[in-house]
Amino acid sequence: MLLHLDSSANRSDESVTRQLTRLFADGWQAVHGSDGYRYRDLAADPVQPIDTAYCQLGRRSERCGVLPPAQVCTLIENAAEAEAWAVTRPLIDEVVASRTILIGAPMYNYSVPASLKAWIDRVTFPGAFTLEATEVVVITSRGGAYGPGTPREGWDYELPYLRAYFADHGLPDSNLRIISAELSLASLVPHLADLRPLAERSLAAARAEVLSCVEPRENATAEH
């Protein structure tokens, strides 16, 4: 199963991450079919931020030594906790069922979009899942450049955060693929105009990398 998450607040065709995640998703479905495809637009259908009921239920689970998701319902003590778990459990089930998780995550203010952070907070219920056998593909865009030697080197708190988060949930580094398109504001901001060729090359390279991820392999079989 492919779980496809978009978190860009810009839901138009201008969104670079949405363009690239759609390219990946279309290629994946061409190989595997559409039955195993699940899409969530975290901007259009936001995940509720966690609240007191979620926290109390999570703490109770931890006191019991962390219960698997199927048993958490036995710990529910009130209607608010039941509602919190009703929102949370389907999101966790999607993660557990997924062989590949595709995340569109533009950098906002040097970190992840709030819509993505809300999803992360919600699915990260104590003991909910590990990701040893999962592949995660993060597609990110940023208005400027943050690589070695750039004026804002070290200002990227998005990718270090995501790397740490997924590593903490058992994802091998070899199973995390990050595809970035930089300088997305160069086509809009006058003082970045001289960087437009670099922006175009970065986007082209990101497109090529996306396509390389989903190219049909010899003897590939559809997932069930």
Mind explaining what this structure looks like?
This protein is α/β, with parallel strands linked by helices and 224 residues long. It has a single domain, classed as Rossmann fold, CATH 3.40.50. The chain is 41% helix and 12% strand. It has 7 helices and 5 strands; from the N terminus they run E-H-E-H-H-H-E-H-E-H-E-H.
**Residues in helices, as a percent range:** 40-55%
Profile the largest sheet.
5 strands, parallel
Over all CA atoms, what is the radius of gyration?
Answer: 19 Å
Order of helices and strands: EHEHHHEHEHEH
Question: N-to-C terminal Cα separation, in Å?
Answer: 7 Å
Q: Pairing-aware structural class of the strands and helices?
A: alpha/beta
User: What is the domain tally?
Assistant: 1
Strand content: 5-15%
Q: In CATH's first tier, which class applies?
A: Alpha Beta
CATH superfamily: Flavodoxin domain
Detail the poorly predicted runs.
Answer: 218-224
CATH topology: Rossmann fold
CATH architecture label name: 3-Layer(aba) Sandwich
Summarize the structure.
The chain has helices at residues 16-32, 52-63, 69-72, 79-97, 114-123, 158-168, 196-214; strands at residues 2-6, 37-41, 100-104, 135-141, 176-181. The protein has 224 residues and is of the alpha/beta class.
